[in-house]
């Protein structure tokens, strides 16, 4: 019986736990699934691992919005974790002083796991902290798991187990609404982890996880350099990252600036729209870069823009075709497990209209801190639908602009700052709207540099996507399966 077609099930009153009367909490498919694993796996309660001292848990801190933007040290929030890693550009940063205030208390170390506890569809997202991530703070909606006894379980194996289909299914069943946000609360104690009985197989899983995490981390660090290289802030992809400019952190505001009334555009009177730092940076790039607006590239028929659709919440969970939303983009790629999916019928209804192709780009149009986030689609990513909060950008004349160079341009610091300056609030959500066409791209004049940047970006993205897909495969293999059945993609209604 498929989960999505349940007409209900019987439950004895004695089986009700903790006065929980929500049907999905008792999803019988989960119990059957776990029973089928007993011959090949040891089923262990997460609580047992904690009580026996194998795993330590802790939560992060809320530092307050006044601390946001005071420095360059990442403050990790729930949306900053995906595909087993932390985003290269988390949306909030804090000062050294704030970091020192919380660092010893949070005591984050390489090898720790961060697990999203609160946040509806983000709940259960997990990553392994690497040496490149050690200097961060994380918020209270995130749990830290530390493995302290490797003979029972290792951190890489725990990551694979928490990502397995049966555990993900349990997480979805056990989350609940607290005030205005969903959470799993302390119910993560109830999770049952399927440990493979074969020790050699466990070691194989552990090694595979480490290979994926470490290789993706190395590529991610190279990825961080590409926008800086494109803008000319570093000379090549192997250069050291520059120290953050302290002037960009406005600890006490700024003294303002003057513009002539004739410079006011479209009756816009929001100061940041005329950010003088952006204008100064662009002028400084004019000798080494061709400055061209996205609008001009559209007029020249180099680029084409389109937007997605809204399928409606009733379509969510009806099938296995990914429905990409603004939060499903991270580190220039799509998440391996987008939070919503739709049926084949809905996909067939809209696929020709949306016309998704390899090397199309997505740019987030709506969504406050997500505005301007972008990715490029590979051959693994085209069987999808996408929401109206995304722009689909297609390079029509690739001999004039390589799609991977465009991706690098969209992530240049000056372009990101342009987008932040031009976004505005519409109803209850921030958006870039049609102002994206005003954004000016700094294209390096040196053709050799353009070719090198595009080639590096292409190689890194494709390698990371291959490893992303490997991570998904590991999550399946830990249960002894090679691919999901349709019923495993559905949520219990």
Helix/strand structural class: alpha+beta
CATH class of the largest domain: Alpha Beta
Total of domains: 2
From the N-terminal CA to the C-terminal CA, the straight-line distance is 14 Å
Give a quick account of the main beta sheet: strands, pairing sense, barrel closure.
4 strands, antiparallel
The Cα radius of gyration reads: 24 Å
Percent of residues in helical segments?
25-40%
| Shape-level CATH architecture of the largest domain | Alpha-Beta Complex
Can you count the beta strands?
26
Strand content: 15-25%
CATH superfamily of the largest domain: DNA methylase specificity domains
- According to CATH, the fold-level topology of the largest domain is Adenine-n6-DNA-methyltransferase TaqI, Chain A, domain 2
Write the layout of secondary structure elements.
Blueprint: H1 28-37, E1 41-45, H2 46-51, E2 55-59, E3 73-76, E4 81-82, E5 85-86, E6 93-94, H3 96-106, E7 113-116, E8 126-128, E9 137-138, E10 142-147, H4 155-163, H5 165-174, E11 176-178, E12 181-183, E13 192-196, H6 199-231, H7 276-284, E14 289-293, H8 294-299, E15 303-307, E16 321-324, E17 329-330, E18 333-334, E19 341-342, H9 344-354, E20 361-364, E21 374-376, E22 385-386, E23 390-395, H10 403-410, H11 413-422, E24 424-426, E25 429-431, E26 440-444, H12 447-477
Parallel strand pairs: 3-9, 16-22
Antiparallel strand pairs: 1-13, 2-10, 3-6, 4-5, 7-8, 7-10, 11-12, 14-26, 15-23, 16-19, 17-18, 20-21, 20-23, 24-25
Helix pairs in contact: 4-6, 4-12, 6-10, 6-12, 10-12
